[in-house]
User: What shape does this take?
Amino acid sequence: MPLPAEIRAVSGRLAVTKNFSVAVTGHTDARLSAAIARALRHCEERTGLTFGRTADGLFARADDPARASLVVACAGPAADLPQLGEDESYTLDISAERAVLRAPMLLGALRGLETLGQLLQGDADGWFLPAVAIRDRPRFPWRGLLIDVCRHWQPIEVIKRNLDAMALVKLNVLHLHLTEDQGFRVESKKFPRLHELGSDGNYFTQDEIREIVAYAAERGIRVVPEFDIPGHAASWVVGHPELASAPGPYVLVRTWGVFDSTLDPTNEAVYTFLDTFLGEMVSLFPDPYLHIGGDENNGAQWSANPRIQAFIHEHGLHDNHGLQAYFNRRLQEILARHGRKLVGWDEILHPDLPKTAIIQSWRGAQGLADATRAGHTVLLSNGYYIDLSEPTSKHYLNDPLPVDTPLAPEEQARVLGGEATMWSEWVSPETIDSRIWPRTAAIAERLWSPRDVTDVDDMYRRLGYVSRRLAEAGSRHEANREPMLRRYAGDRATEESLAALRELVALVEPVKGYQRGREQPETTQFTPLTGLADCATPDSQPSREFAKQVETVVFGDAEAASLAPWFAEWGRLAGRVRSAAAACGPREGELMALADQLSEASQAAGEALAMLASQTETADLAWREAMFACLDRAGTPRAAVELPLVAPVRLLVAAAIEKTRRGTMPPDAWRAHLPAIAFPKKPE
Ligand code: ACM
Assistant: This one.
């Protein structure tokens, strides 16, 4: 994962033994050697084999390519720093004799080594690489992950391990969201009050930024920094209130949302300041692209300031949006002088915005289409908001250029790719990996693999595999779960209690979208993220499997009775969770409530099954109302988690209610009818 553009299995396998050796025939350099060494080390760690080493501890190279297990033939170098649109293609031919990795440029060799690592497997006959012929290249040149290090600080270890994980799935842009109302996360030697007063001491030093950029470049990943202005700017004006559109003083924001602090575009000193600041930042971030944010400026300070409104009038800027366009134009001139191209969110789109600016679309397909038609190059992030706890399948099927795209071919050519966005309202360094991975691997595939690679079941099958590779590469998405659960359960919890909690957590998901803020409105930046919702992950595997099995019953011809073991298991689990709750002290209330919900779902499902099986009984209104009332209770969020298995149980109840109509309806009509019964629209 991502699935290669072309992959053909051929018969045979290349054995991987302790004699595995590598020859490099074409171009070579330190970056390629380091990538080969990382790939070999991962093979060693998985197999337990120790490959040959030189006297100084480096992996030995085969002198004769004809005798090497792996030949890396790279035709040419790459730019020192990865560049947008660089050739990332490669071919990989594995036979019983050897594996040959060919790439026109260095980046392709790095990508091919990741593919090789994913092919390694073992069986009773030993470790091996299956024989294959792969021709691979990315569909889109910009395949990114945004990490918001502001709302919750994410130190350099988090960034580095996520860069390793990104490399594994061939993502090539790390977008660092570095400034926000809640934190200014980069050291400025020119304006030290920015990070000193704007970060609680949590910021990247300039040395750390250089380290991140170098670490990313080693892995063929660009780093694009974002300095979000003119809105989302409270952390700037804590130390520099003179830049704001209203008098200070200002303090850091500790909660989530859209706030008023906004830079003043009518103040020439703001541009002088930004010129100096951005000049300093471009010396740290060598990529030609720099993101200026531009989203969610509520205009409150501008509307309230008569001087700013007079400026808008005098300059014929019409309104606040016109003023922001003026600000962006000025910024674009500053960036151009520093050799940078401007990137910003949807909201910067304006007829006056220079066409060289890239628009990153977060609000929807329309925003992407509007910006593309206006002549901009664009990136898609709408649909890739991994902070919203949505299922992997939803992100996976979100294509920047779907088959029915309304864009003309020349407009399509301006769609560069997309980025998953890890906004950090609800993640700590302990939980962030479990929100990014493995779901982002599916987004990586969407952006790399051909458009027709859309088999969701096959994606989930491969996601389980790649999740283990990601964990081996250093991602903490699996590793942190158990200690978190133990801490949640408390020291009095027994092994039996923990086993019950583990199963419960596997069945629940954090609430979706922006609902957690409504469930836990008291939350601030200081609230620990150590609850049940933080232990749970967004795409419950058993719930998904149950939902699939329900579909085979209600839409296919599987026996309804095949579902019974599920409900019986939930019933038993509810009992075990109740026992565990008593040992979990202060957590008892929420665990008891969840156990009740699990029981109710189990009971409703059992009754639906009996109704479906009955030759004599049909569901009357009272039965229907009782069932849905029970499932409404079971589906209510508790401790910011919900039970996704309730939705398929509702389908089952609907099938029981409508069982006499099934035979009278064509399959398509039945498929459309059942959800309408299961999920009735609530009156407003
Ligand atoms: C955004 O989510 N405000 C870019």
